[in-house]
Each structure stands twice: as structure tokens, then as C-alpha cells.
Specification:
Elements (H helix, E strand, L loop, with lengths): L3 E8 L7 H17 L4 E4 L16 H18 L7 E10 L2 E10 L2 E7 L24 E3 L2 E4 L9 H9 L4 E6 L7 H16 L3 E5 L1 E4 L2 E4 L3 E3 L5 E4 L6 E9 L5 E3 L11 H19 L5 E5 L3 H14 L4 E5 L7 H14 L4 E2 L3 H15 L6 H22 L2 E4 L3 H6 L12 E2 L6 H13 L15 H5 L19 H12 L5 H6 L4 H13 L1 H4 L31
Parallel strand pairs: 1-2, 2-3, 7-8, 8-9, 16-17, 16-19, 17-18, 19-20
Antiparallel strand pairs: 1-14, 3-4, 4-5, 6-7, 9-12, 10-11, 12-13, 14-15
Helix pairs in contact: 1-2, 5-6, 5-11, 6-7, 6-11, 8-9, 13-15
């Protein structure tokens, strides 16, 4: 029986489906842990497949590929005599059933397999669709120490931890795939503290890092001693391998060396901004786009999108295009050019006036006798969409859509126009948060950002009234309530699922609330056709909030 364990936390950024590449990351982290003197390496959930693998695990060929990769990892790690063991996480077939599993591999041999018992089936998670639930897990014996290895959701309720405690668990090592939500870092720490307090057993929580479509995994892995005190902490939003030393005390309990690193986790707007940067960077890089192209309007949404893109990819991979019409103000042209200068990207201009004239000529006979209306405004937006998609097709850059959650909630966006593109980095941000992030970025240079220090968004872009500039003297608030009012109503409707009467009771005008409800309901068909984007809130469109397009529930009374 050993009285000391050096435990490595491997906080990695896998790519879903890239089994060979992920296996290389696993082995490289193992080698780093070996150099650090680790006895055992803990990986995040399903590191070999990437998380979440979704329906990939339903392909027999994919499962075979995973098994071959595990065999290869066993072969490569047995070469180092007395090297660290691995708690390798992977989808795994057992007697014809698929499990979300962790394999204890020691000296090149699979010694033990444990499967996830509590499969989440809410929000962004649908593991019951592709995995079987494992039995209540037993402890894993490693060098005379009884390890509890619950997997992610297994620690969100007390039952699995209580079971493992009853089986004699001395330390909990927990693989996780927990995506970012605003303020979720504190929720995780408090949750793990609850499990530690209930059991009196220390716990190490290893979380994935990296972007996967809409989800961003923010890392921030950590460990708590049996008294709930912080033992070790890894940074957020970055890969890292950290080994901490744990010793058995005279009372039989385990405690971490007091000198273990304790990185600070970012919070508030800092954490949100870093999530947006990491989500965009990984979406572009993992899908092998050379860069992004953004339509710059001179407004706040495109300016913030451009700043995030430059911070994520570097100025040389961001192409900014101004597409003025006869309604574009001189100030908007100046603001877009100044923003590009601050970001050091340069900017080009392609006038959509000829396209507007061409469509007017083509559609004139069909529209005869009808006054101009929103149709002509939408044609402007769609002309810009055609230009951006043309540049994307010709040069390979992905079109980055610039709409925000407030607009998408109420349908203040044009299908096949400003909604066209491959990714929407602001998709889950309300407009009031967009304003706050612009102020924050002008005052801060985020960790790992590739963009310049100092102000990157001109003050006039932030302070001037938002406008689509599709008709003379147009302002957003001609069509919508003020954004502070709109966003509070939307937050109550979407995140809070509150009724009209409840929102009115909170202080809002009833007619305004009813109008926003109708707009939210009516725009579902647009949102169904929107590009993916970074999830920030607990109720992101597409992944969390799923409503029918054809919907007969229009009772706005209760």
C-alpha cells in the first residue's frame, strides 16, 4: 500500500472524431506527466473520441477505430517501465452495448473498465440516445489505493458518490465534459464542494477545454481536499498538464501538497469574451477554414464580431468588407474604417447600389402598383449576403454572421441576408451584453488574444443609436422597444419561461410584453435556419431551447 500518489490532470482540447489526433494528444500528455513524476494521469470525459461524439458512436467502424487506438496507446505506454497509469476515457463496447467509459491502463494493459451510470438527457445532452447506462460503479484499486472514478453527471447528484464512499473510495478522480455557461464556474466548484462535504473524500475534477460546434469547454480543472479547501487549479480556456502530489495522513485521509498550482479562473465579461474567442478559433481551425470574412456596417455587432475574430485568429486571417448603399451614412463608413484601422486588418468597399438597381429593374414589372416596403429593405440585406458568400466561395474564408440574440429572438434579421454565413459568434448574446463586452474589450486585453492592446472599437460605434440603415433615418428603436427593456423581457421569456402576466407583474408594459411574445413565437422558422454559434446562456437557441415552428399555443393570458 502506498501513502503517496502523484496525480496528473490532463486538460486537453480534442477534436470530435479525430481519433488518431486525439490519441497523439493522450500520449503526449502522458509523456509530460511522466516527466513530472506522475503515478497516474486523469483525462477529461471521452477524450479519445472527443466530446460530445453524438451519433458517431453508432457507427461500428468508429467504435472499431477507437478500440484500435486504445490498443496502440497500450502498446506505446508500456514501453516506459514504471511509467504512469492512464485513466483513459472513451466510448467502449461491452457485450454488444456502448458505454461512456473510463479504462485504467497500467504498464500497457487494461486493468479495469468503469462505465458512466448517470446519463444526462437534458439541455445539450442526449447521452441516453447513444449510450447504455453502466451499473453502479465499484472502486478502482490502484497501487493499494481505492479510487472512485465517477464520470461527469455521476457527481451532479449524491447517489454515485455515496455508493463509492460506502465501497471504500479514498480519492475521487472525475473525468468531465462540462461546457461553459455564464457563471457556471462557481456552480461547479460549489457542486464538487457539496460532494466532498457529504463524503469527506477529496475530489479531482478534470474538465475538457476547447470549442465543439456551439459548445465551448472552458477547462478550469481543479481539486478539493477532503475538508473542501482548494488543493489544485488549472487555468481556464487553455490546455495544460499539471501533476500534484497527494499524501495519506495519520487519519487515513488524503491531502494535496500545499504548493500545488492554483490558477485563477476568469469571471464575468472576461470569461464570456474568452469563450467567444475560443469557440470561434476552434470552429474555424478545426474545420480548416483559412479565415473569416465579415460584413462591416459601422455598427456595434459587426465591430465586436471583428474584434473577437482578430483576437481569435489574428488580423491577417480576418477580411472586413463594407457594403454601402444609398442609405449608408458617412458616419458609418468612417466608423467601420476606423475600427478596421484599430484592429489592423484593413477594409475594402463593395457598393451594393448596382445590385439594388438591377433588382429594381428585374422585379419592377412584378411589383408594379405596389409601394416600396420591407421587401426592398430585405433585398439590400440579401445583396450583401450574396457578396459575402461570393467572396467566401472564391477565397475559402467562412462568412461570420454578426447578429445577436436580441435580434434573433424577435426576427429582426433577414433570411439569406444578414443571417447567411457559417457561424454566428454573437448568437447567444443579448444586445445589452454586446454593449458591455465592447466597453470591456476596449479596457482589457484578454489572455491569449492575438489582437492589439488598447481600444479596438471606436467610441462612436458604441454610443450612437443602432440602425440597420435600410431606409432613410432608420433606427432599431423605431421597430423594437429599447434594448434594456427588450432584453429583460426576452430573458424572462426565454431563460425564465415566464408567462405574460408574470412579466407584466415584474414592471413591464403589457402591450409591449404581448408584442415581444408574438415576435418571439413568429420568428422560430428563421432561427431554425440560422447558423450555429457559441452557447453562453442556459437557454441557447438550437441546442437548449427547441420549440415547434408550427405551434398552436398562442394563449397569451397566463
Amino acid at each position: 500500500m502506498t501513502n503517496m500518489l502523484a496525480i496528473a490532470i490532463a486538460q486537453l482540447n480534442p477534436i470530435v472524431g479525430d481519433v488518431a489526433g486525439n490519441a497523439e494528444k493522450v500520449v503526449a500528455a502522458w509523456e509530460t506527466a511522466a516527466d513530472q513524476g506522475a503515478d497516474i494521469v486523469l483525462y477529461s470525459e471521452l477524450v479519445l473520441s472527443g466530446y460530445p461524439p453524438e451519433d458517431l458512436v453508432m457507427k461500428p467502424a468508429f467504435m472499431r477505430h477507437l478500440r484500435h487506438a486504445v490498443d496502440d496507446i497500450c502498446e506505446r505506454t508500456k514501453a516506459l517501465k514504471n511509467g504512469p497509469a492512464l485513466l483513459l476515457t472513451t466510448p467502449w463496447d461491452i457485450d454488444g452495448e456502448r458505454f461512456n467509459a473510463v479504462l485504467l491502463i497500467d504498464q500497457g494493459k487494461i486493468e479495469t473498465v468503469r462505465a458512466k451510470n448517470d446519463l444526462p438527457n437534458y439541455g445539450v445532452f442526449d447521452e441516453k440516445r447513444v449510450f447504455s447506462a453502466g451499473p453502479m460503479p465499484d472502486v478502482v484499486s490502484f497501487r493499494g489505493v481505492k479510487l472512485g472514478v465517477p464520470i461527469c453527471e455521476d457527481v451532479w447528484t449524491p447517489k454515485v458518490i455515496a455508493h463509492l464512499k460506502d465501497r471504500g473510495a479514498e480519492i475521487f478522480l472525475v473525468p468531465n465534459g462540462s461546457p461553459f455557461e455564464a457563471d457556471k464556474g462557481d456552480l461547479r466548484r460549489n457542486l464538487i464542494a457539496d460532494r466532498v462535504r457529504e463524503s469527506g473524500v477529496p475530489m479531482i475534477y478534470c474538465n475538457e477545454v476547447g470549442g465543439q460546434d456551439e459548445l465551448v469547454f472552458d477547462g478550469g480543472s481543479f481539486g478539493l481536499n477532503g475538508d473542501g479547501s482548494l488543493a489544485v487549479a488549472l487555468p481556464g480556456f487553455a490546455e495544460d498538464v499539471v501533476t500534484s502530489t497527494w499524501s495519506r495522513g495519520e487519519d487515513g485521509g488524503w491531502r494535496c501538497d500545499a504548493n500545488a498550482p492554483k490558477a485563477e479562473y476568469p469571471s464575468g465579461l472576461d470569461a464570456i469574451y474568452q469563450t467567444l474567442v475560443l469557440g470561434l478559433r476552434d470552429y474555424v481551425n478545426k474545420n480548416r477554414f483559412p479565415g473569416v470574412v465579415i460584413g462591416m456596417s459601422g455598427g456595434i455587432d459587426s465591430a465586436l464580431s471583428a474584434a473577437i475574430a482578430v483576437d481569435a485568429l489574428g488580423a491577417d486571417r480576418v477580411r472586413l468588407v463594407m457594403m454601402p448603399s444609398p442609405y449608408t451614412s458617412k458616419e458609418s463608413l468612417e466608423d467601420a474604417e476606423q475600427c478596421a484601422g484599430m484592429l489592423k486588418t484593413g477594409i475594402e468597399s463593395i457598393n451594393i447600389g448596382p445590385a439594388m438597381g438591377a433588382f429594381e429593374q428585374m422585379l419592377g414589372p412584378a411589383f408594379e402598383g405596389r409601394d416600396p416596403d420591407i421587401t426592398e429593405e430585405n433585398i439590400q440585406a440579401r445583396s450583401r449576403g450574396i457578396i459575402l458568400m461570393g467572396l467566401s466561395n472564391k477565397f475559402g474564408h467562412m462568412v461570420l454572421t454578426t447578429g445577436n440574440k436580441s435580434e434573433m429572438s424577435v426576427g429582426y434579421a433577414t433570411l439569406y441576408g444578414d443571417m447567411c454565413g457559417g457561424y454566428s459568434v454573437l448568437k447567444d448574446l443579448y444586445k445589452t451584453t454586446v454593449f458591455a463586452l465592447c466597453h470591456w474589450r476596449n479596457a482589457h486585453h484578454p489572455a491569449g488574444a492575438l489582437g492589439p492592446d488598447g481600444m479596438v472599437i471606436p467610441e462612436r460605434i458604441i454610443t450612437k443609436p443602432p440602425s440597420a440603415e435600410l431606409r432613410p433615418d432608420q433606427k432599431d428603436e423605431d421597430s423594437l422597444p429599447p434594448y434594456d427593456v427588450l432584453d429583460d423581457i426576452l430573458h424572462q421569456m426565454i431563460e425564465g419561461e415566464r408567462s405574460v402576466s408574470e412579466i407584466v407583474e415584474s414592471g413591464h408594459d403589457e402591450a409591449t410584453v404581448r408584442r415581444v411574445w408574438r415576435l418571439l413565437d413568429r420568428a422560430e422558422y428563421k432561427r431554425r435556419q440560422a447558423p450555429p454559434g457559441v452557447k453562453i446562456t442556459p437557454r441557447a437557441f438550437g441546442r437548449d431551447r427547441r420549440y415547434p415552428i408550427t405551434n398552436g399555443f398562442t394563449n397569451l393570458v397566463t
